[in-house]
Design brief:
The protein contains 4 helices and 27 strands. By secondary structure, the protein is mainly beta. The strands form 2 sheets. The protein has a 22-stranded antiparallel barrel. The longest helix is centred in the N-terminal third of the chain and has 16 residues. The two termini are about 30 Å apart.
Length: about 550
Amino acid sequence: MNVIDGRSPTEAPEDGFNGAFRIGASSGDNGAEVAGAIDKALGNLVLHLDGTYKRTDDYRIPGFAESEALMAAEEEEGHDEDDHDEDEHDHEDEEEMFGRLENSSTETKSITGGLSYIGNKGFFGVALHRFESDYGLPGGHEHGHEEDEDEHESEEHDEEEGEEEELVTIGLNQTRLDFNGRLDLDGFFQTLQVFGGYADYEHTEFEGAEVGTVFANEGYEVRAEALQAEQNGWKAAYGVQFRDREFSAIGEEAFVPPTETKQLGLYTFQEKSFGDFHVEASARFENTDQDNTVTGESVSFDGISLSAWGDYHISDAVRVGGAVFRTGRAPTTEELFSNGPHLATNQFELGDASLDIETATGVEAVIRHREASHFVTLNLFYTDYSDFIFERATGAEEDGLDVFQFTAQDATFRGFEVQGGLDLTTIGAFDIKTDGLVEYVRAKTDAGDLPRIPPLSALLGLEAESERFSFRAELDYVSEQNKVSEFELPTEDYGLVNLFASWKAPIDAQPVRISVSVLNLFDTEARQHASFLKDEVPLPGRNIRFSIGTQF
């Protein structure tokens, strides 16, 4: 839960009032959006209001919704001659999915009201937020029970040929009440902070026009934190956190039973400086209780997380550092108790109530070099997991969906991240800069590669900026991923070229910024390997976005 979002102002606006307004449009999905926010001082009170509205149609894709790898796998399965007519019908459906991703349209709206008291010793604020969204599930379709389909197949074959499969859509609404406060103290503790909130969430799965399953999630969280005053370079924080969540799903396709989760956490953060050497350490104890309110089954977990970090300034330009950590994570409700179709990911999920704490032990090394005209940072990491929890494809099928089983296996993650930037030159009024980022992770268990692990990726950017104008071009490259688990298809590499431009209108009192961007300039087919639906739901094709905004 994050309540540091500006909805509860922490300070009064300059001149007693400020605001922002933006409108935008996009070509790839015929999208339109409008957003605005204001903060108004009323003595010691500060009022905050904001609202957004966004609508999109089905978005453009460069080719077929299905990947070549999936099409090839389906062809290898082969079909009997008696299924010839059905194959023709499926081919027609694929043709309909060319150029646009069916059922990817969205409509969202939100409104927020917040009020804070700002005093000499701190502040306290509350905010009420309402969010509503209606959107389709690309790749998610109504499915029936196989036995019923077999029973009526011969009688209704002709009728079914003329019918289209019902699409699955979501109607979502959420109401949140958050509070946030700070009190400045004198003495050993310099600040007391409190955070909390209550959320009432519900979303309904519609299969065509019919209500399928209604998911409800109601809960609250409270966190209190005391910050220690600095003493000879020593700073610290101490906190306690409590969460309570009640989850229910009503409908034929409810894949998780009603549950209640309670979580209590105690934590501390410590830091100390010894000249050019800086040390940080943290510890957290967490107790999690989860109750299946249908079967009466109850499980409890105690997790301990510890970490330590240190860095040393070799010179003004160079820093080296490293970290060691051990974390414990309790399995979620879905990982423990799932048993049914999950239409958002188009799979049949099976939980495992015997899952235990997931424990990670790892190390990280960092070196940073920064000067006025350039910087570079290298991160290396290695993490060893005991009972790493993930969803594993079983190869079985249930209700026309692939079965995925939550399971735990020992696993290792290793990889690196390199990030850098360089000031190239100045041409006229423009400063020319370049930057880059490369990321890589390798993850596997004793049994083989883990599923849905992102491959090597690189982002290279070139930008020119002046007082009024800014231009940026970037190449977002992701390599192929052929280190896959059983029943998982490889993913091809892709490179997306994105262009950005903005102009700050010369209106000093109320500056106006006009922005234009072209995403996926060359309309390249791209699929994210980490997605469950990557072989049915590609990333959007070429999309031109326009926005105009102002601050006042």
